[in-house]
Amino acid sequence: MTDLSAARRRLVVDRVSRRLIPFVFLSYVVAYVDRVNIGFAAGALQRDLGLSNSQYGLGAGLFFLGYCLFEVPSNLILERVGARRWIARIMIVWGVVSMATMFVSDNVSFYVARIVLGIAEAGFFPGVVLYLTYWIPAAERARTGALFMMAAPVAIIVGAPVSEAILKMDGLLGLHGWQWLFVMEGVPAVVLGVLALWMLTDRPEQATWLPDEDRRWLAGIMAAEREQRMQTGHASVGRSLRSGRVWLLCTAYLLNTSVTYGVFLWLPKILDEASGASGFGLSALTAIPFVAALIAMVWVGRHSDRTGERKLHVAGCAITAAVGLLLAVTFRQNVILLVLSFTLSQMGQRAVMSVFWAIPPMLLGGTAAAAGIGLINAIGNLGGFFGPSVMGVLRESTGGYSGGLLVLAGALRLFS
């Protein structure tokens, strides 16, 4: 295997990161916006489709049922046919489905549209996580993972004002504002899907954009890491799917995503009712927690890579997020303190992600990594169904959000 100086190795990893991370970051921004833009359109959707709070919460969560069913098969196909073509296929199809959501007319068609969108997007996030294990050495993954996963809070920060602006197109050409929202926010996914065919390279061995010596070193180091994982971890699909450690990670991620989507898909309504703000004022309030989360994600990811420690970082972030939700219940009548409470919660909630996703590749090798990462994301993202649904049911039965937030805080405590 070609050897390089430490400085040269650092330059190679940085060059790979500059080539791949911005594109997958932008793609994930678009994916996240398409997944959660109903949170911005919730009021109009409920009014025009006649949806109750529980029906809206159910529809918001049904995305993750379709998503769950196709995660593992999608990652296994990606491993076989290559990330470039498969990620492009995922993006183009989900963009088309997102645009087609403009045709929903009642609760049933809304449910169907959400399930189909989940099926269409299935495999994108775990596919990118798997793809980065082909390119980024293990010691660098929390930092680069943080740069990729920063797309989620950025999507909310950017998506809120953009979505509010699109919603103001209500009535143009006889369409509702939420119809314009689904159309205009679905187009970028199709465009990026086509660009993925040119921007992504399947493996380091094929990276003609790297100098020969750098390409040989990177291909060698990644091959050595794969071989080590196959010797020390699970290397077969069957053993991966039966592994107690993999199912423990599935459970932990399920709890975390229940909170992630339970909070976000209701956060605009919570802040709306607490502050009376609307439009860009509401967007600004919603964005504050996620701006702080960006800083926390980068700092925690770098600290975890520098120390080489993963588990305590994950637990500490989860506890921080739980404390934030408890404070949100306490300060629900004070808008400033409520926003600060959600800010603390999101700093912990979002920072945990990059460190968490650095753990599965340490345990899995070969095709098992594709299956295991897909399974963890599939089972974990069922939390996207449970979280919003629990919030909707408890909001309807109690008349407030405190019960739902307490349940989510309890989930984080179990996660830690």
Provide an overview of this structure.
The protein is an all-alpha fold and 416 residues long. It has a single domain (6-415), classed as Up-down Bundle (Growth Hormone, Chain: A), CATH 1.20.1250.20. It has helices at 6-36, 42-49, 53-69, 71-81, 83-100, 107-121, 124-133, 141-149, 151-167, 177-199, 212-232, 237-242, 244-264, 267-275, 279-307, 311-330, 335-356, 360-363, 367-380, 383-398, 402-415. The longest helix has 31 residues, at 6-36. The chain starts with 5 loop residues before the first helix and ends with a helix. The model has no long low-confidence stretch (mean pLDDT 85).
Summary keywords:
single chain, 416 residues, mainly alpha, Growth Hormone, Chain: A, 21 helices, 0% strand
- The CATH architecture category equals Up-down Bundle
The percent of residues in helical segments reads: over 70%
Please count the beta strands (DSSP E, at least 2 residues each).
Answer: 0
What's the number of domains? 1
Q: Report the CATH superfamily.
A: MFS general substrate transporter like domains
What share of residues are in beta strands?
under 5%
Kindly provide the radius of gyration, computed on alpha-carbon positions and rounded to a whole number of angstroms.
21 Å
Based on CA inertia axes, which overall geometry fits?
Answer: globular
The succession of helices and strands, N to C, reads: HHHHHHHHHHHHHHHHHHHHH
Largest sheet, described in full? none
State the end-to-end CA separation.
40 Å
CATH class: Mainly Alpha
CATH topology description: Growth Hormone, Chain: A
On the 0 to 100 scale, the average pLDDT is 85
Regions with little confidence, pLDDT below 50 for 5+ residues: none
Structural class category: mainly alpha
Output the number of helix runs: 21
